[in-house]
Amino acid sequence: MKSALELAYTVFGIFLICHWNSCFQFMLVTLMDYPANSWVTLKGLKDKPIHIQYTHAMFRSLCHMMTLNYGSGVPKGMSELWMMITSITVGTVLYALVLAKITALIATFNTSQRAFEDRHNELKVFVRHKQVPEGLLPRVFGHMENCYQGKWFNEKAILDELSEPLKLEVMQHICGGLLQRAFGDTEPLFLTELLLVVEFTNAQVGDVVVRPGTTADYMYFIDKGSVVVEHAGVEHTLMDGDYFGEIALEKVSKHSITATTLTPCRLCTLSVNAYHAVLENFPELKGKCLVWPFFADS
């Protein structure tokens, strides 16, 4: 909307300058009392209706300013010649300014999409250089599309730019419900501080997010998507709002579950280190089981 408005102002400015130029050209002939060799006299416009006079003057002005031709014959006399020189000079400068304005508008139009396309092209160069197998390419490009959906942005950098109260409101909107479901009636201030340390990640279909025997260093919250969790030979399908890997917060351990995505997923993650750093400010909560476990992942 802003770009369209700026373009409209530019077009209006061009018309206004052409209008002033055409009026000045006709006024100059009028002040000289219509010389016999003037363009107004030669065209027989002296006694014509004003709209015909204005149309011819505007045409002459545009021809000069766009350096197309003389508009109505070669200038006669020094005054018309200097008027034409002035018109051509103003038109040339105006043309350069308009071209610069349009270039600037194009450069600033949809920057996030163009940034995404640049990143996508970089990824193409990368996979060719590293000779990534053909079968893996759809997942690689699909992951990028799933993460950014055609618009490139640095989510972490954007959130870090916000003031803490504003960031907290945004995070409350994004994942406040997820933490509330996991931690229930825990101290509200504790949940508030956890919101500030939650991070985000994306996963493609078939990604193994958690493997048995790996160190439990993250808890995962499903913002969007579905994940199948296999534990002790039994599979459980988790959907939006569910969580897994909560054993990481309770003790140093290794996972005994396998968590595999069934659909493209957006996950919120809470690292063990960040969790315990927040917990240090709430000694009364230490030693308590703050998360109701989905599975006995121990």
Task: Write structural notes for this entry.
- With 298 residues, the protein is an alpha+beta fold.
- Helix content is 53%, strand content 13%.
- The protein has eleven helices and eight strands.
- β4 (227-231) and β5 (234-238) form a beta hairpin.
- α1 (2-31) runs antiparallel to α4 (78-108) and α3 packs across α4 (78-108).
- The chain is elongated, with a radius of gyration of 35 Å.
- The mean pLDDT is 82.
State the strand order across the main sheet. 1-8-3-6
Individual helix count: 11
Principal-axes shape call: elongated
Helix content: 40-55%
Extended strand count: 8
User: What class do helices, strands and sheet pairing give?
Assistant: alpha+beta
Termini separation: 55 Å
Mind describing the biggest β-sheet? 4 strands, antiparallel
Relevant terms:
alpha+beta; 11 helices; four-stranded antiparallel sheet; 298 residues; single chain; elongated
